[in-house]
Amino acid sequence: MHSKDPAFFPGRAATIYYRAPPPKQTAISVIKNDIQAVFHTKKDTQIGTLGILHPSVLEKFEISYPCSALEFSLEPFKKQMQKIWTNED
Amino acid sequence: MFALQCSHEENFEFLNHKDDGTTAVKIANPKSLEFQVVRTSLIPGLLKTIRENRSHPLPIKIFETSDVVFKDLSRERQARNVRHAAAVWCNKTAGFEVVHGMLDRAMKMLEVPRIGSEDFQAGTGYYIKESSGACSTIPSLG
């Protein structure tokens, strides 16, 4: 389940998960939410990673000090845009 | 478009990643080694910036928000742009807490609440989970 990212120092890396808000609050969606909560079947998307970079990575980039990195996707947080500006088909 | 490209080595080998052939869009006739693939991560670019500014006093704190491109065979153009945000902190100490704080700040600005990773009841939010899974204690650094 957890894909280990070799770019980071082992044990010093984390994955960022995002749970999108439910589209509409109705009686049924509330019940559905409760059922999913009980059975732990909620769909959380993996949006990024953070951690301390592995020394071998720093070596390849010729950096002599430790570095921490953070990277995540902004796609779930984009506001509605005009179609010509987006990737939508 | 030039800033979007990088060498295959930087995008994969330098980050200890393996190229499975389904992630990155490759350029058929690259002008030089620097333009082999369209990048799939912003981290190599930031690390290259740190490398070129080694003489700069520490700490170095940089970020970038830009598009990266993934292969997507389900679409006609077979590629997909994804907007990413990335930040790197470089100092005498690693500063995991600094990038974690930056994530918390970014999420606060996006009005996304922080939830527990075991909180199955919460409607929306974000949480972080250790990537390597099982072990919860800090491993010996030898």
The percent of residues in helical segments of chain A reads 10-25%
Low-confidence stretches of chain B: 133-142
Which structural class best describes the helix and strand composition of chain B? alpha+beta
Look at the helices and sheets of chain A and give the structural class: alpha+beta
Q: How much of the residues of chain A is beta strand, in percent?
A: 25-35%
Provide the low-confidence segments of chain A as ranges.
none
**Major sheet of chain A: size, sense and barrel closure?**
3 strands, antiparallel
Termini distance of chain A? 31 Å
Distance between the ends of chain B: 44 Å
Brief summary of the model shown:
The complex is a heterodimer of chains A (89) and B (142). With 89 residues, chain A is of the alpha+beta class. Chain A has helices spanning 27-39, 55-60; strands at 8-19, 45-53, 67-73.
Write up what this structure looks like.
The complex is a heterodimer of chains A (89) and B (142). The two termini of chain A are 31 Å apart. By secondary structure, chain A is an alpha+beta fold. Chain A has a domain at 13-74. Chain A is built from two helices and three strands; from the N terminus they run βαβαβ. Chain A has a three-stranded antiparallel sheet with strand order 1-2-3. Chain B has 142 residues and is an alpha+beta fold. Chain B has a domain at 2-92: 2-Layer Sandwich (BirA Bifunctional Protein, domain 2). Chain B has three helices and five strands, in the order βαβαββαβ. Chain B has helices at residues 8-11, 43-52, 96-109; strands at 5-6, 37-38, 60-71, 79-90, 125-130. A two-stranded antiparallel ribbon of chain B has the order 1-2. A two-stranded antiparallel ribbon of chain B has the order 3-4. At the A-B interface, β1, α1, β2, α2 and β3 of A face α2, β4, α3 and β5 of B. β3 of chain A pairs antiparallel with β4 (79-90) of chain B.
